[in-house]
Amino acid sequence: MRAIGMGLTCLAMLAAGGGATCRREAPQPQASQIEKADQARKANKADEMSNEVKKSDEQWRAELTDEQYRVMRQCGTEPAFSGKYWNTKTPGVYLCAACGQELYDSQTKFDSGSGWPSFFAPVDEAHIATRSDTSYGMVRTELVCSRCGAHLGHVFDDGPDPTGQRHCINSAALELKERTE
Ligand SMILES: [Zn+2]
Questions:
Q1: Of the listed 75, 96, 145, 168, which one is catalytic?
Q2: What range does the domain containing 93 cover?
Q3: What is the rounded CA–CA span in Å between residue 127 and residue 145?
């Protein structure tokens, strides 16, 4: 029952224009210039209120590197042991590489042996959103940045204490802001 409920929530989000998803979406029909301007005004208003970052696909493609775009906007996964942070132990805070929101502190990073940066908790639960991901014949929980909707990775329940969670994140979705102590 729970999985069905989550699926419906996901569909409702899609219907409401809930941001990027792992599914390939058909191109949107072209709106007239007036409609576009009206939509932009409404979107700006919503952004001011919710602090959300919403950009067009073209904007993201222009601002992100090819690898960041593939991971964060197309739900790609970098190969294990290939990203720049999988083995990093430098103290600091990992920010969303797309919008700069603080996501994970190095103090919650642990060596999972998976080849991807792994954390047992986010800086703030409100900075992370989850979605059910049923791609590749698996049921997984996808993690996205709550501010810009960027795909980050997945969360599993085989992590260490105190949470038991393993947030398995692509290096390409992160930017480490080093802490000087
Ligand atoms: Zn973000």
A1: 168
A2: 37-178
A3: 6
Distance 145 CA to ligand 1 centre (A): 5
102: CA distance to ligand 1 center in Å? Answer: 8
pLDDT digits (tens, 9 = 90+) for 5-63: 444 433 333 333 334 456 544 444 455 666 666 665 555 554 444 679 999 999 999 99
Structurally, the chain folds into a number of domains equal to 1
Task: Specify if 84 maps to a domain.
Answer: yes
Does residue 11 lie within any of the structural domains?
Answer: no
Give catalytic status of residue 168 as yes or no. Answer: yes
C-alpha 134 to ligand 1 mean position (Å): 22
